[in-house]
Amino acid sequence: MAITRPLTLRRLLDEVGPVDAVGLDERVAKYTTRSIKRDSKVRGLRMAVSMVDLTTLEGKDTPGKVASLCRKALRPHDAADTPQVAAVCVYPSMVRHAVGHVRGTGVRVASVATAFPSGQTPLKTRLAEVKQAVTDGADEIDMVIRRGAFLAGRLDEVRDEIAAVVDACGNAVLKVILETSELETPDHIRAASFLAMQVLRDGDFIKTSTGKTSSNATLANNQVMIDAIRDHYLATGTRIGMKPAGGIRTAKQALHYLVAVKETLGDEWLHPSRYRFGASSLLNDLLRQLETQRGGAYPAPWSFSEDSGGY
Q: Which active-site residues does the annotation give?
């Protein structure tokens, strides 16, 4: 059945161009067939660890749980060559607690905001939440767009709200969550990516998901978004980062995503300042695979702490 779209959304889709769904599926399937030699695999596993946003987003979060999360972020494993993760991601009320544990270490503090995960509060309230998180020390803000407004064709409204959050962030990095599972089609995902990037700054991110819906990051929606990032960069010179979130649980999956980034965006994006994994449950499998490469035996799950948060 054909999708009925508002005129404004149809115009944006015409402007950014459609997604070849068949070609998309064929392309992402090939990423899973790439052969990665041992040395490259070890580098990829360490790189993936350094790109993790270690996350806890539960109603029962406490300062003690955040402290435990920060210890895991700073020292994921006893092996000296295991890198720190990129960031810890917490609710705004927990930002000051996280800052107290990671200040000066290189691990950043990210906070979800703008009425995460729904985005359904007045803009004034959402902006106040962002400003408070930044005041409390957040280095990064993960915001959600209002998907209903986008699908209804109120594109100026969505874009202006993102721009207002950019202003509220000050020097903090902004990651714009599209919630791809609610955007219905790859064409909508591509269009929403471009809409966000129109007002984002060099070093800001677009992100697939909140991790709170039944369908989150996939190689396919990741590919749609990194293709959009490439096209935007070629047109403007602005480097936007990417964060797939939710559903990435194994080291093997993470390596597939890194192959996609390398082949689409190049080595410049293979860095935590350009690419992140919002997938805390991924971290322990990355550590187990690294230990396997060192010792030849795959460690038991209980060999590593479970202080790896939600998502």
A: 142, 207, 243
